Amino acid sequence: MRLGVSTLLFSSRHIVDAVREIASLGHQRIELFCELPGLDVDTVTDDTIQRLAGLADEYELEYSIHPPLVNTAALDEGERAVAIHKYRATLALAGRLDIRDMVIHSGQKPCMQVDVGESRELARRTLRAVGETARNVGVRLLLENTGWHEHAILGAPGDLLELAEAACPPDTGILLDTGHAVLQHFDVVGCARLWLPRLAQVHAHDNAGQFDEHLPLGEGVIDWSSLIGLLVGAGWDGVFMLELGTGDDASRRLADSLDLVARCAGTGCAGR
Ligand SMILES: [Zn+2]
To answer: By the 8 A CB rule, do 11 and 3 touch?
Structure first.
């Protein structure tokens, strides 16, 4: 497996500074998170795009992109139109930066009055619309498990595969977000095993079982040794993207997480 680092780690910094910091630590696979300053998909400047492209050349970076946070399964037509617009604007940005992979959320149940079946139908509509654009611009979607507790939209891990089959382009990859799987009461290793044939990326972060804390690996309830053992043992060649939250001691928390990955992976990990 290949390691990557998300710019979520430096979410209060300008996107260019966040990328430069991660690249200077020696990482080449970087997730551009569209909630960072400077990367609003509707207002991003040519200068920012040029500087991101320049960093990619200088450090031989491989970007993937995470759209702004919208609900794929929004009930309100206007809100869902905005979600589709944001996803398409992210695809356009991906095209300008030669990015091959874009994350897309499975969505979340919008309110109590809408049942899970209806919520999933709303998500399917958005995924079909965005999927068509993705296909046209040659970007692969990575469908990520989202929605938990009263907003749960997936009843079981197999529902994510069903959503991908029913509504996404055939080349869509599955993205296992480890922290989300915990909050969805799914067995993280079981998800990885089930999704492995289509698993393109892992969003690696930890939590204590209640909130989406994006903690460093090993500071929550996830059994990293079993998960990484499974992935390495299977010869999985997807991207293990560290998606840690922001904090004062970001570099240390990243280093601690990388140490844990190295310990769990033995020699099977393809470095940075
Ligand atoms: Zn994620």
So the answer is: no
